[in-house]
Amino acid sequence: MNNNKNIKSNDKILSVAPMLDWTDRHCRYFLRLLCPSCVLYTEMVTTSALLLGRDPERFLEFSEAEHPLILQLGGDDPVAMRAAAAMAHTYGYDGINLNVGCPSSRVQKGRFGACLMTTPELVAELVAAMGESGLPVSVKHRLGLDREEDYATLRAFIEIVAMAGCRHFIVHARNAWLKGLSPAENRDVPPLRWDWVHQLKKELPHLTIEINGGFNELTAVTAQFSAVDGVMIGRAAYHHPLLLAEIERAMGRRETLPVPEVILSGLIEYAEQWGEALPAPRLSRHLHGLRFGQNGAGAWRRFLSTAESGESAAEFLRRGMPLLD
């Protein structure tokens, strides 16, 4: 029984976070089958990969079914960001997102990602350059850096960036600790401050404020819709993808939950279009959560672990269909 029928959230944003090495185009197609209304994001793509790499299509191509789809960019050079945003427009993305939250050593070396929290004026320049593409621009950022917590600094960051034309801010409600924590630890250790994000929306009602960080069950997500404009789901969407459909139902966007057999049939049709160009492991690695919390989940995961590159994804998934009966 749906106990959330009275939630007035049909106009709110539900999105899936950009996750490096996870939200590739095959993962996104799978998630789209489960959640028709959510906004999908690419993995972070650096401007250097697009502008200096030999194969930018590898990062930019996607299936039409993935819309609405946002390209997340990483970088700190307005000229390069302008060129990369123009490419996003050419390829037909629905928007561009600037990464101001990644704390990895790679981005620290390049002085982008979360490092940009200290230079709001530069972020404003990047946003203005991206905006010349004509696509909507959003910024995904943290509350601050390391153990320094100051709400006024956070608000000032947003106000400066908003003056450059950004109207959509996705706030990962933790600081990024660049010293002493790994990227994985940065997803759990810094304290969550959901209340800070709620306060931002109260004080800056003209901006779209979307919250991210620590959401892994239905009621925690739906409780946010009275305080902010949307919720971005991270790892929970990957490990428990049916959660997205449960949220959609609570938002009034669907009546029933998807059937795993139907989802798998859709994936087989998708894989057939690729043929041998899509080996089984490239798709199967994203499907471990299809039976999350259900009888037979263990057998399904064991089957997925047998995927080999010599078999096409379509043939492999056909063999797995009986496990979903």
From TrEMBL:
Binding residue positions for FMN: P18, M19, L20, Q72, K140, H172, N212, G213, G214, G234, R235
Q: Which domain of life is it from?
A: Bacteria
Q: Identify the catalytic residues.
A: C102
Keyword vocabulary terms for this entry:
Flavoprotein, FMN, NADP, Oxidoreductase, RNA-binding, tRNA processing, tRNA-binding
Cite the position(s) of the site with description Interacts with tRNA: N99, R187, R301
Write out the function statement from the record.
Catalyzes the synthesis of 5,6-dihydrouridine (D), a modified base found in the D-loop of most tRNAs, via the reduction of the C5-C6 double bond in target uridines. Specifically modifies U20 and U20a in tRNAs.
Q: Which NCBIfam families match?
A: PRK11815.1
Q: What is the name listed in the Swiss-Prot or TrEMBL entry for this protein?
A: tRNA-dihydrouridine(20/20a) synthase
